[in-house]
Amino acid sequence: MPHPAPTEQPSIPGTTIFDGRMAMKGYPLNKMCFSFNEKANRDAFLHDEDAYLEKYGLTEEHKEAVRSRNVLRMIAAGGNIYYLAKLAGIFGLTVQDVGAQQTGMSVEEFKAKLVDAGRN
Amino acid sequence: MARIVGGITTSHIPAIGNAITKELFEDPYWKPFFDSYPPVRDWLNEVQPDVAIVIYNDHGLNFFLDKMPTFSIGAAPRYENADEGWGLKPLPPFQGAPDLSWHLIESLVAEEFDITSCQEMLVDHGFAVPISLLWPDRVKTEPAKQIKTIPVCINTVQHPLPSPKRCYKLGQAIGRAVASFPEDLKVVVVGTGGLSHQLDGERAGFINKEFDLMCLERIVDQADSLTDLSIHDLVREAGAQGAEFILWLAMRGALDGKVRKLHSNYHIPISNTAAGLLLLENAGL
Ligand SMILES: [Fe+2]
Prior knowledge:
Chain A has 120 residues and is an all-alpha fold. Chain A is 63% helix and 0% strand. Chain A has helices spanning 20-25, 27-35, 39-47, 49-55, 60-68, 71-76, 81-90, 95-103, 107-117.
């Protein structure tokens, strides 16, 4: 028997399954972030953010999420963390900064939590 | 005939690539991690494999959501690494083994695995970091003498992901394909990624030591008991990105039933991740 689709299973707290539904919802946002693999595009974003958001056809929800710099909002808008990491990289943020923001901790607290995970 | 000499699994966290560039091998944060690799390099030096089949996942360098193959295999003489957007320095190109690549593709499709073949394929940190850890002198070696590589990419970005059982079976089919390749080649299979980690959501920073240690133990000679896990089980127990464990299972499938565990390591944390390392020798060797 195949396993039921994740969306038909009990949800996992604090976790969004990035499935087809989310991938459609977040498509322009993720496509913009994918473009940030290239430096010229990262520079263009920094030069004129509004124009760049427009160019990739972001919805109002996407735009507000990006402008808020709030990763949880970007995920709710369909952003996938691998692509969002490229946006975070523009601001010099690492996955630990992003983890701290999403969990409402300071970066030091977040790092300490990771170290603690090895102690039990 | 070609034969698989063994398998290695290792985490592929981007921060490792940065630490290598900055040579942080003696740094207190990094030392316990880097110190676990010399026994694996010694084994590679002794065995001298000709080709590494590297089972990894792309994180948004080569593939975007416009086309997202479940299983894809590189079939090129060379693979380029490139800017991933957040500051990892691109490495010189990796050498391919296109004859064996096409043989893998033909064998796997004949076995009803629907493979996307790639004559151009950018390989990201999921592929490059493990190569740098296992063959640290590669960048100083002339291309013709470098380890030859075959990228085998499994989708872990967009659900549905292939099940643990399907990935294990893919590995078994890779094992049969290598065994039927007429050239005398020694092949090592590398599974990358994992162990438990989660980058996204309110559960970011989730690590599950107990589950990881169970996987590290069982994958050696009770891998069958792990293939009944669902992707949902893996996401719940190992974190959203801990589902990369399917890449480890694909590696394990490629080995014969009986293996010898020569080395393993488990270290928390590297970046947001529980780092795992495992060296299995094919018992037939
Ligand atoms: Fe990864």
